Every structure is written in C-alpha cells, then in structure tokens.
Amino acid sequence: MYQKRFRADPLILGSTFVIIGVLIVFPFTLLFINSLKADGVFTLQNYITVFQANRNYTALFNSLKLGFFTSLFSVLLGAPLAWLVTRTNLPFARLFKTLFILPYMIPPFVGAIAWSQLLNRRNGYINSWAASLFGLEGHVFDVNTMPGLIWVMTLYLYPFVFITVTGALERMDPTLEEAARTCGAKTMRIMRDITLPLVAPSIAGGALLVFASTIANFGIPALIGMQGRVYVLTTMIYSYMRSRGFTGIAMASALSILLMSISVGALLLNNLYLKKKQYTLISGKSMRPTKLDLRRWKIPILILAFLVVFVTVVMPFVSISLTSFLDAWGAKITWDNLTLKNYRYILFEYALTKDAFKNSFLLAISAATICMVLGSLIAYISVKTKIKGRKALEAVSQLPYAVPGTVVAIAMILAWSGRYGINLYNTFWIILLAYIARYVAFAVRTTSASLEQIHPSLEEAARISGGSWLTSLKDIVVPLIRPGLVAGWFLIFMPTLRELTMSILLWGPKTVTIGVAVFEMQEAGYVQISAAFATILLVIVIVGNLFVKWLTKGKAGI
Amino acid sequence: MSRVVLENLSKSFGEVNVVNDISLEIIDHEFLSFLGPSGCGKTTTLRMIAGFDMPTAGEIFIGDRLVSSAEKKVFVPPEDRNVGMVFQNYAVWPHMDVFKNVAYPLKISKVKSADIRDRVMRVLSLVKLKGMESRYPHQLSGGQQQRVALARALIMEPDVMLLDEPLSNLDAKLREEMRFEIKDIQRRIGVTIIYVTHDQAEAMAMSDRILLLHEATVQQLGTPRELYERPENQFAADFIGLINFLRIELISKGDGLYARFLNADDDTPFDINYRPEQLSPGMQRVFAVRPENVKLVSPQEGHVTGKVRKKVYLGNILDYRIVLGKEEIRVEAPSTAKYDIDQVVGLKFSDYVIFE
After folding, report:
1. Given an 8 Å threshold on Cβ–Cβ distance, is B83 in contact with A182?
2. Taking a C-beta distance cutoff of 8 angstroms, is the pair A545, A105 a contact?
3. According to the model, what pLDDT value does residue A548 have?
4. What pLDDT is stored for residue B309 in this prediction?
C-alpha cells in the first residue's frame, strides 16, 4: 500500500530559496532601485549629482589610485617573496612561508592603528626616533597621506599575491622547466621564458584580488586617510551616512553602486578571464623542482626576508602592545610611564567594552551557526539535487562576499529601516543579517567542497535501507562532512568577531561591537585604550587561528 | 649521434639504493630500452644521463665526453649535455604555440630565424604535424602533444634522445601507432635512443636491446629474443610473457640426467637436456616453460600426464589449465584441440629453462 508520509525535503529546500531571496536579493534590488530614484521618480539624478560634486570625483580617483598602487607594490613584494620560498635554497623557507602570510591574519584596522602610532606626524615612534637620531626638527614621515595609505594597505594585502603565486609555483610541473633545460636554457633564461609567463596569470589574479580588497577596505582609509582628509569611496559613503538625512542615503546608494561595479568588475575579470588562463600545471609525478642556489646572496637575502617580517609583523605588534602599557601617550618610554591601567580600565571599568565583547561574541557565534546551516543547505541543493535554479541560488549566495562590506551595509539599511514594514535599524538583528548575508558565501564554499567528496550512492544506500531524506542527512551526510562544517564555522566566527566595515554603519547605542569600539576610541584620541583593546583582539585572533589550524590539521586558518 | 657509456653507476637517497652498480654501453644508433616495474630505478638512471640527478658513484660518458663522475667531481649540467628528452607528460609549454615550442632549442643556441623556420618545418613534417604550427597545446590531442615533444627533442640534433615512458598517457590504439612511428623516425635519422618503459610489449616491439631492471639492479641485458627465449633468472622469465614455474628434482637414471616433478601426482622421470654442466643429480630446481611450448598429446606420448581442469576458447587458441597434483600448468593449444574437462592428457615440453 502506498503510504503518504510527511516529506521534509520540499519544505526545507524550498524555504532556503525564500531565505536567500529575503536576505540577499531583496536588499540588493532595493539598493539598485534606490540609486535610480530621487523624489519618488526614476531618474539618473543621483548619479548626476554624485558626479557634480568634486569631492566624489576625488574619492573615486583616490580609490582607483590607492587600488592601483597597492596592487603594484603587492606584486613587487609578494611575487619575489613567493619565488624565494619555493624556488631557492633560502634558509627557513617553510617558516617564512607562514610568516609572510601572517599580516593577512591581523585585522587591517589594527594594522592601521599600529602604523599611525609608528608614523604619525606629531609623535609617531619612528618619527620621534628619527628626529632624535638625526637631530631633525619636525617629522620625516606622515602616514596620513596617500603614500601612507598605500604603504599600510600594501603591508596587509600583499599576502594575496604571495599566496596565489606560491600556489602556482608549487603546482607547476617541474618537467616544464626541465624540458627547457634539456633544450640548452640556463636558469635565468628559463625563469624569463618559461616560469614567469606560466605564473603571470596567477600574479595578475593576485593583483586583482588586492585591487578589489583595497577598494573595499574601510578600516585603513578611515583611520589613516580621513585624518589627513584623504577620502576614498568607502570613507565617503561613511561620511554621507553620518550626515544621515535623505539625500545622504541617496548619494551613498549611488556611490555604493559605483563602488560595487568596480570591485565586482575586478573579480569577474579574475574569474572569467584569468582563471581560464591559469594553465593546468599539475603533473602526475610529484617531483621536486630544482632549487636555485643563492650562493653569496644567501645571507643578504635572508636578512632582507627577516626585515620584511620585522616591518610587517614585529614592528606593528610591538608598537601596539607597547602603547597599550603607556600611561601618557607621546611621552618618553620609561619605566615610570608604563602601567596596566589601560587594561584595567577596558576590562573592568568601562561599560562599553563589556557590551562590545558581549555583542561581538554573540553576533559571531550566531552568524557562524546560522551561516553554516543555511550555507550547507545551499551547498546541498547545488551539489546534490537537480532542483531548477540551484546554480543561481549558489551564485546569489556568493554575491555579498564579492561586494564591499560597505555596500552590503547600505543595502541592509535600505531594506530594514522601516520603509518596508520592518524596522531593525540600530538593533542587534540588522548587524546579524548583514554578517549572515556577507559570510554565508564561506559556508557554501567549504561545505560544497566536502559534499562533492561524498558519492551519491552513500546516500542512496541509506534511502534503500529505509531511511528518510532527513535520516540519511543526519546519519550519513552530516557525519561525513563534519570536519568541513567545523572548519567553516571558525572561518566565519573569526572575521565576524572583529568585523568593522559593516558594523560601523549599522551599530546603535546598544549594539557596539569590538571593531566599532576600537575604532571609535582611536578616533576619539584614546590611543592607549584602543591599543590595549587591539592587543586583546590580536591575542584572540592569534589563539583562534592556532586553534583552527590545530582543529583542521593545518588545512584552514592561515 | 653517439654512444653512451655507464660505468658502475649507483644512486642512493640516504639508505635507499635506487640504482645499484649499472654498467652498460649503448652503441651508436642503438635503440635501447630500460624495462622494469615501477621503482626499479629505470627513470632515475635516465635522469642521471640527462643530468637532472647526480650519481652517488660511477661515471657517465656521452660520446667520448665524461659528463658525470662522482669520483672526479665532474658534472655537466643538463643544458650543456646536448641530449634530447621526451617526458611522460610531454612537458609541452602551454603558453607557446607548436612552432615556438619546437623552435625553442634553436632560439637558445641563436640560430638565424630563417634557418629556424626551415628546420622547424622539416622536423614538423617528420612527426606529421605540418600545418599545426600556430596551434596551442590545449588545442592538440594527447598524441599530437606527444609529437610536439618529440619534434622539440629531435630538432636540436641531439647526441642521444632520452624518452621517459612517452606513450603511457596515450590510449592503446594510439600507443601502438606511435611505437612504429618513433621506431621509423629513429631508423630514418639514426639517432641513439634510450627509452624507459614498464610495458614489456612496447620494449619488445621497439628495442634493439633491452636492459631489464628490478630492485635497482640489472636482471638481464639482451635482445628481445634473448630475453624471451633465454631468460637468465626467474624474474626475467616472469616479467616478459607468460610462463609456468614447476619445482623439480634432478635424478640420474642410466647414462642420462632426468627430472621429476616434486608436487605432481605423476612423478615419472623424463630426460632433461639443459646445460648439463650446471646440473647434477639430487638438485632441486625450478622448471620454467612457456604455455606455447607445452604440447598436449595422448597420455602415453607425453613426458608426464595431467588432468584437464579448465579450458577457455580465445579464438586463435584454446587456453588449457592442466592439474599436475598440487600444481597447475597453463597450456596454449591450437583451437582445434579436442581434449575435454577431466580428461587425462600427456604433456610434452620443449624450449624450457631451469633456474635455481
């Protein structure tokens, strides 16, 4: 007898489409419509107004300039370092491989705080030290300028180039180079004719990633650029939103669309064009490539490599932790001037800190959990079912991560500030929605990678044995992908815990987050307090990363 | 074109010997194969000749030039050895078209561009790739990429060509076709070729001589016929073609030397005619005979008798399994043979060999 049973799959799978529709499609559609609307009618007026204002031009130009030079210097720094650790006999190459991607782990706004301590005009450590050393009046460096921005941005984003180029060099089939050698080519000739052209698409890919991330970055231009009145698109949008007002949000929407087009354009170029040119270089046999003997250059290059680590990691870290123990900022570093009061203040006395920790942990835990559930469903639909529109669902879920955080925040504000019946503005929930929308892409990617490893017959065998769809999911699929799920959870938990770009636009009096608290204190001039806070944050980030690395046996985390 | 001489060549990684004391002279114009299962040291030996691996001991000469000597601290780098090499995965450069790939060695040695064009065209027509000059590797089939790799190695007119399992990534039909083509090209231009393969049929079909390797040591060096008909040890016999191994005991009977099977029900002695100087009564040995060298006859006519256990019709032949007590022997009989399952038959041996 045919028994009609309750079937869970259409309900659960169907609702996934609805959730993604409400979470992502709705806000982004509104953002697009809103940028085309002024005084209730469809018009290009907003775009015209945007381009009539000189400062918007300047912001756009600055964004492009910053993006271009950061990409350029990231390539000049990242590609040679990648070559050094993979293709030469540089000592400690494995250690350097980890150290060179370490800056990637440091939240960019923490890096910005460190470098404004080191290089600010009035009392930056390096400026004071240089002044006393050479007996100079005034300053040598001023970080609050375009070159300062490029400097800090490069130090935190060059790992993108380093990682992609290292990967390409490691995957490259060594026989391609050996073949050139039997043809009579010497090492330098092989580098020029074979190696470089083969990794060129990866270098360009890394550069485009740097470009997109630079354009999308808020923390660095906000903490370093705004003080020197160097505005870029993200900080311009921020200042429009600060002025609140109806025109402010219209202008912010129009600028957001502009910002989004540039960074999505860069990523599309990478995915559509460069990915295809990234030759399949993997060989069946895994033979080690011949490594170049650096000979007499070995020691100088080793010193240079340590210098890179010193400048990108050690100096900022020392600066921030040192500042966090200072009694008076700007005074000489003496034993009398060292204190624990900053820590006492933020840990036990200041109410805002407690709120920030509580909010951020709650947000990060909820966002990571919800993202994993939602992301696994999307991945499941995309990998394991034949439901129509599954590829579109997956593509839409990736969109908010491709888009700058600032743009996601603006879209959330447009959708959830009461104009369409639901007002979440200034609440915990709007921040959570933004986090979920932005980071669900991570969950989809990690889960679909694990799901693809599971042969359909495993699930089918569970069904044949009498299990329902939910049972087979619970007993077969979830246990098999559990390591991926756990790793994915932490990959979302870590960045949301220290999120700044979206939070700064969405926070309200009761919903301050760690990122916002550090930012606001730094902006308000409580330098030692923000340094103490940033130090604690760095410790959490490092411990968290080590934990993820241990948990995933080195596969995730940096 | 030149000869290649290996003298007491050894290579070890730490404690592990990958190549153990190989001495060999590959003569001018010769096609010589290194044959053996994976891990036997054949690829490492080839890479030492190419200059990608440094020997731990021994010397390598290409022509009369010493290119590698652990003792004399001589090591000529690969780019200065003038050897052509074809890799297993072709190693055709994906960012260069066919013309540029093939012309590369000439560009390195600064040949004039008019001459380059001439020579590239000539070698492309030799490997049947004329008209494909401006194609990129991803537009070529595996077989065509293979030809590009071959052309690139040929164009430099190397002293010796090294081919490292060049056909193993091709499908069966193409592989057979390429075998004859490579052989044909070699015959026409007379280049010395050292060819690495784990495929015995490939080695048999192409080689003038085969160097059979196992566990880093030479098992046998000889022509394909010598390896097949006169294997020098059990490994060589087993690796090339099909063969039966049966344990025997030698006994003397009257004036001659006789053998009887140790694990057979029928232990009737039969006379042995194999290198009598090495054998004497009382010895236990391994009797090896290929399936086609066993003739099924009536029980009275054979050396021994056995019982048919299984027969499989394979078109041109009948593949019989005959039980001789505890052991079984495989026999290839003409497809007209009429013996049935469980029938008692006689077995007549020819061209057998005996190992320790």
Report:
1. yes
2. yes
3. 80
4. 94
Q: Which residue of B has its CA nearest to A182?
A: B79
Whether residue B171 has pLDDT greater than 80: yes
Structure tokens at B225: 């016929």
Whether residue A178 and residue B149 make contact (CB cut-off 8 A), yes or no, is no
By the CB < 8 Å criterion, does A172 face chain B?
no
DSSP string across A194-220: IIHHHHHHHHHHHHHHHHHHHHH--HH
Location of structure tokens 């040679």: A80
Q: How much is the pLDDT for B231?
A: 93
User: A31 Cβ partners below 8 Å, 6+ apart?
Assistant: A253, A256, A257, A407, A410, A411, A414
A464 vs A203: which has the higher pLDDT: A203
CB contact under 8 A, B88 and A285: yes
Query: Which residues pair with residue B312 across a beta bridge?
Result: B319
ipTM value for the complex: 0.79
Q: Are strands B192-197 and B31-35 parallel, antiparallel or unpaired?
A: parallel
| CA B190 centroid distance within chain | 20
- Do residues A190 and A197 touch, judged by C-beta distance below 8 A? no
Count Cα neighbours of B85 within 13 Å in the Cβ-side half-sphere.
29
Q: Is the pLDDT of residue A1 over 60?
A: no
* A282 Cβ under 8 Å from any chain B Cβ: no
Contact call for A182 and B50, based on CB within 8 A:
yes
A276 touches chain B (CB under 8 A): no
Q: Residue B57 pairs with which residues in a beta bridge?
A: B10
The reported pLDDT for the residue numbered A285 is: 47
Binary contact (A182, B149; C-beta < 8 A): no
Residue of A182, A194, A278, A281 to mutate for B, most B C-beta atoms under 10 A: A182
Report yes or no: A279 at the B interface, CB cutoff 8 Å.
yes
As a whole number of angstroms, the distance between CA A363 and CA A372 comes to 14
pLDDT at B26: 95
DSSP B273-286: -S-GGG--TT-EEE
Tens digit of each residue's pLDDT (9 = 90 or more) over A308-320: 999 999 999 999 9
The three-state (H, E, C) secondary structure of B48-88, written as one string: HHHCCCCCCEEEEEECCEEEEECCCCEECCHHHCCEEEEEC
Q: Which residue of B has its CA nearest to A281?
A: B94
A192 touches chain B (CB under 8 A): no
Residue type present at position A311: V
Q: Are B152 and A173 in contact (CB < 8 Å)?
A: no
Q: Write down the pLDDT at residue B90.
A: 87
DSSP codes, A280-318 = ----SS--PPPPBP-GGGHHHHHHHHHHHHIIIIIHHHH
Q: Which among A185, A280, A283 is the nearest to B79, CB-wise? A: A185
pLDDT at A328: 76
| Residue B120 parent element (H or E) | helix B113-126
Model-level pTM? 0.82
Report yes or no: B13 at the A interface, CB cutoff 8 Å: no
Query: Which residue from A194, A280, A290 is facing B93, i.e. has the nearest CB?
Result: A194
Chain position carrying tokens 């060819």: B195
Work out whether strand B284-289 and strand B353-355 pair parallel, antiparallel, or are unpaired. Answer: antiparallel
| Residue of chain A nearest B154, judged by CA positions | A183
CB contact, 8 Å: B149 with chain A? Answer: yes
DSSP string, A426-490: TSHHHHHHHHHHHHHHHHHHHHHHHHHTS-HHHHHHHHHTT--HHHHIIIIIHHHHHHHHHHHHH
Across B24-35, average pLDDT: 94
Judge: B78–A181 Cβ closer than 8 Å, yes or no: yes
Tokens 């005979």 sit on residue:
B289
Among residues B125, B121, B143, B101, which one has the least CA distance to residue B188? B125
Residue linked to tokens 């009536």: B298
Task: Identify which of A183, A186, A290 has the shortest CB distance to residue B152.
Answer: A183
Shortest CA distance from B152: residue in chain A: A183
